[in-house]
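Hi support team,

I've been running sequence recovery on a batch of backbones for a student project. Most finish fine, but this one hangs at about 90% for roughly twenty minutes before it completes. I'm not sure whether the input is malformed or the queue is just slow. I've pasted the structure tokens below so you can try to reproduce it. Let me know if you need the job ID as well.

Thanks,
M.K.
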């Protein structure tokens, strides 16, 4: 499914043809940011199936992590969009938490064509050499392939949701405007602005009036990179187009407040946001 209708500039851009720098996921936590490992949440696999898989795409396959209940089938599906740091242990644990709640959750390593994120330690280099080089059209096509994989692996994609963190939050806005079957979206501190480029032709705000499903945005009032006014402007644009968007601002939370392995983690905001996310999914049929 490669329908880019409504996303100006994406349909025409040719998808990248590259090899794959990552053929399996990284182990452990990212090396590219400060970590506070004593506070890391570790979700076990009791009652669930979880592990690495491959998402077939043109030219090969992308590594991914999935988790789902051990018994049954026809599970509602959550696409989990990674941070800029890759599908490391934190993102894997998010998938296991969702599986414990009854979902088939899958997180694909969308940047596998560009670099091996497991070996990168400099945030600025990751942004410049990896994140800025990923065409939005490629990301959406790979996310579509992830949905296709989920449908063939005990998922019910008639009950489809998407969530994501940081840059993955931006991609959550885009996917909510892109995929016709997505029923609910939750963006955790996803950038709504930024500088467009030929391969990333528009911001999340530009897509706010094109959303195909209800979107919940969870943002930190102390986020130094995402001004609250910008988030509210995106919300206002969506609502002016009669889209169902709700923005929750945690006044004392910084960027990355859900990332339990980092100093930015704020337990109260993270737990409240998680409850809101699950309630949002349930409310809208996922």
């Amino acid at each position: 499914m490669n329908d880019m209708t409504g996303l100006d500039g994406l349909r025409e851009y040719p998808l990248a043809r590259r090899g794959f720098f990552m053929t399996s996921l990284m182990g452990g936590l990212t090396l590219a940011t400060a970590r506070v490992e004593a506070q890391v949440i570790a979700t076990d696999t009791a009652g669930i199936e979880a592990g690495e898989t491959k998402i077939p795409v043109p030219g090969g396959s992308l590594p991914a992590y999935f988790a789902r209940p051990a018994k049954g089938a026809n599970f509602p599906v959550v696409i989990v969009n990674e941070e800029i740091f890759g599908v490391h242990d934190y993102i894997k644990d998010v998938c296991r938490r969702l599986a414990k709640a009854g979902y088939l959750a899958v997180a694909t390593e969308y940047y596998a064509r560009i670099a091996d994120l497991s070996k990168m330690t400099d945030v600025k280099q990751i942004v410049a050499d990896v994140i800025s080089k990923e065409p939005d059209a490629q990301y959406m096509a790979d996310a579509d392939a992830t949905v296709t994989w989920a449908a063939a692996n005990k998922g019910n994609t008639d009950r489809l949701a998407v969530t994501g963190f940081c840059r993955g939050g931006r991609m959550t806005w885009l996917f909510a405007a892109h995929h016709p079957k997505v029923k609910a979206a939750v963006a955790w501190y996803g950038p709504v602005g930024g500088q467009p480029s030929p391969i990333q032709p528009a911001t999340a705000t530009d897509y706010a009036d094109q959303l195909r499903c209800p979107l919940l945005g969870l943002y930190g009032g102390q986020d130094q990179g995402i001004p609250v006014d910008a988030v509210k402007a995106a919300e206002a644009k969506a609502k002016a187009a009669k889209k169902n968007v709700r923005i929750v601002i945690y006044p004392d939370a910084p960027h990355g407040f859900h990332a339990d392995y980092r100093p930015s983690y704020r337990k109260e905001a993270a737990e409240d946001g998680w409850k809101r996310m699950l309630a949002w999914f349930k409310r809208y049929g996922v």
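--
Follow-up from support: It reproduced on our side and the slowdown came from queue contention, not your input. The chain has one domain: 37-283. No action needed from you.
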